[in-house]
Amino acid sequence: MADKVRKVTLVALGLLWLTPVYLMLANAAKTDAQYGVVPVWQAVGLSGLMENMANAWERGRISEGIASTALYSVASPALAVLVGAAAGFAIVALRLRRGFLWFAVIFSSTVFPIQMVLMPLFIGYVEAGIYDTRMGMILVYMVISVPFSAFVMRNFFSGIARHVFEAAVMDGASTWRIFWRIYLPMSGSALAAIFVLQATFIWNDLLLGLTLTQSTETRPVMTALSALQSTYGGSTMPTVLAGGLIVSIPTVALFLLMQRSFTRGLSLGQF
Amino acid sequence: MTLTQSPPATREAPPATARRRPRHTYRWASRGFVLPSLLVVAVMLYVPFLWTGYLSFTEFNGLGDPEWVGLEKYREMFADAGFLSSLGNTLLWVAGTLVLPVGLGLLIAVLAHGIKGSFWYRLPFLLPYAISGVAVGVIWTFILQTGGALSQALDFLNLPGADLRWLLDAPLNTFVMIVAATWQGAGVNALLFGIGLQSIPKEPLEAARLDGASGWTLFRHITWPMLTPLTTVVVGLSIVGSLKTFDIIWGMTKGGPGRSSETLALTMYKETFVSNDYGLGAAVAIFLTVVTVAASLIYLRRQLSDAKEL
After folding, report:
1. Could you say which of A90, A268, B5, B120 is the most buried, measured as most Cβ atoms within 10 Å of its Cβ?
2. Do B125 and A14 touch (CB under 8 A)?
3. With 0-12 CB in 10 A as exposed, 13-18 as middle and 19+ as buried, what is B275?
4. Helical residues (DSSP H) of chain A, grouped into ranges
5. B128/A11 CB distance under 8 A
6. What secondary structure letter does DSSP report for A109?
7. Which residues in chain A (137-196) have CB-CB distances under 8 A to chain B?
8. Which residues 40-99 of chain B have a CB within 8 Å of chain A?
9. Closest CA to B291 of B96, B91, B98
10. Which sign, positive or negative, has the C-alpha torsion A232, A236, A242, A245?
């Protein structure tokens, strides 16, 4: 009985939670003629969806940012996972001297708000000639992802039995080989968890994109959506919502496909 | 144990006879593996931290050389009414985040705990976490615009509030943006509390049940105290997260109208990149950082000591 009450409450709350998604879909699919005439709560099929998405894609400049954003969201977490795993390997398997101190140094950088580095990064990027370049964006997103990656991988490697390492040493494997051929392949689930979570984070980033890029080819897609939103005198509300829909599809799809990795990454990251 | 000195090239395997190798066997290899992380974190995060610290004592507009002005920028900051209202809004965000996303997250976790398929019941709450702050802003701007979806629903249900200007009047605009942030973030807290609830041993609960405790009493006296370590982390992360809130506000009001819904994160960005007052922006960044670091000590100590035990 108590279970039933809990289930009903959860379903009711869950439906409430999905309401904004419904409103977004219903109105992103309205043609300009329908919007404003048909009440916002009422769905009228999908007649306007394609056109609105095409509008956001072309005139809203979502298309231009999407390739770079995809590149950043794949390359940066992939690099960060390796760099962070190497740090975890040094601390746990190779027993780096004062390993915990160095770990704390790496991890503690996540505490500072990103605002703290924005202007030096901006100035430094201009000086170094990597302002508004894809290279620069891959680099900064990688750096932001490294502490989390080191945190998770250090914890994960701690769970690998010591004799695995010792047996490999007996067999004459080099440290690099032990890392690359034994430890990394054993950590697939943790690596995937970090990758999925960081890819989502990078895809969704606004602040670094606003600060370190300006041209449409390098600007991440969230800056384009933000611009579309603030100038919607030019584009109609259904177009803005369709833009929001386009940029949300990849991360929501990734989340649904990889919920296990996603939730695992979230929980691993906190403990 | 004849190996007293570590070999210069540690890529070679140590002699198989050394069963308990001294700690320094992999001195150079271990340094090599940790170096990339330390290097990027030092160059791209710690050096900029210090640089921002220096800039906060200067007058600098982004061009030419920063000019040392001592504490002038901090004085200017605390004298600025915009900064003070921004500080007030930031505190509202912190308080609101503790009540809504944390409170609701706990509620959802407790409701879903132990029922079959609890993952699926929690899924709708976790879904918005995959959506960006900007997109959340787009959706909620649409819902909350004057005369928009929310106003129409209230009107239809004959509830009060249909004529409120949700995003135009302060502090109402900050409250409704906290609601939007709750929509995005409550699911993560529910997930974390769910993990915490699972890790509570069954015995004390059973014993308390046998003694006749149930419902609220059981939660208040058994579950809640045992959840404390996790609550510390969730509360700490939420405070820190709310202090840094940027995307949702940028996506909804850009801190406006005027500066009425600005938070410290936006003030820092606007002073620096809109007003080109780098010194003032840096001072705000330092202030925000001091507050954030103080708040994160709540959970960081626990996280690090947990990690140390591994």
Report:
1. A90
2. yes
3. exposed
4. 2-28, 49-58, 62-92, 99-108, 115-128, 134-158, 162-170, 175-177, 184-186, 188-203, 207-212, 221-230, 237-257, 259-270
5. no
6. T
7. 139-140, 142-143, 146-147, 150-151, 154-155, 158-159, 169-170, 172-176, 179
8. 40-41, 44-49, 51-52, 55, 62
9. B91
10. positive
Q: Are B93 and B300 in contact (CB under 8 A)?
A: no
Closest CA of chain B from A241, distance in Å: 7
Shortest Cα–Cα distance, B124 to chain A (Å):
6
Nearest-Cα distance to chain B for A104, in Å, is 7
Residues in B touching A83 (Cβ below 8 Å):
36-37, 40
| The predicted structure's pLDDT at residue B174 | 93
Tell which residue, A82, A207, A213, has the closest CA to residue A135: A213
Interface test with B, best of A115, A175, A240 (most B CBs within 10 A): A115
Q: At what angle do helices A221-230 and A237-257 cross, to 10 degrees?
A: 150
Best CA proximity match to A114, nearest among A76, A152, A141: A141
Cβ pair A270:B237 closer than 8 A: yes
Tell me if A44 sits within 8 A of A27, measured CB to CB.
no
User: Any chain B CB within 8 A of the CB of A62?
Assistant: no
> Which residues in chain B (88-117) have CB-CB distances under 8 A to chain A?
108, 111-112, 115
Chain A residue closest in CA terms to B21: A166
Query: What is the rounded CA–CA span in Å between residue B292 and residue A191?
Result: 29
pTM of the model: 0.87
How far apart CA B101 and CA B288 sit, in angstroms, is 22
CA-nearest residue of chain B to A207?
B247
Residues of chain B with Cβ-Cβ distance to A73 below 8 Å are none
* DSSP secondary structure code for residue B15 in this structure: P
Q: Using the structure block, give the residue that is written with the tokens 């510390």.
A: B232
Q: Is the peptide bond before B160 cis (omega within 30 degrees of 0)?
A: no
Determine the angle formed by the axes of helices B27-41 and A99-108, rounding to 10 degrees.
Answer: 20
Per-residue pLDDT tens over the stretch A169-209: 999 889 999 999 999 999 988 899 899 989 999 999 999 99
Name the band, by pLDDT with cuts 50, 70 and 90, for residue B4: very low
- Kindly tell me if the per-residue pLDDT of B177 is higher than 60: yes
Backbone φ/ψ region at B3: left (φ over 0), alpha (ψ -120 to 50), beta = beta
- Which H or E element spans position B282? helix B278-309
Q: How many CB pairs under 8 A join A and B?
A: 294
C-alpha B258/C-alpha A198 separation (Å) is 34
Q: Is the pLDDT of residue A54 over 90?
A: no
Which of B:165-184 have CB within 8 Å of A? 183
Q: State the distance between the two ends of chain A, measured CA to CA, in whole angstroms.
A: 35
The answer to whether the beta carbons of residues A194 and A87 sit under 8 Å apart is: no
Would you state the torsion angle of the CA atoms of residues A187, A190, A191, A194, taken in this order, to the nearest 10 degrees? -170
Say how far apart CA B249 and CA A165 lie, in whole Å: 49
Q: Looking at beta carbons, which residues of chain B come within 8 Å of A203?
A: 132
Asked if A205 and B134 count as a contact pair (C-beta separation under 8 A), the reply is: no
Calpha distance B125→B134 (Å, rounded): 18
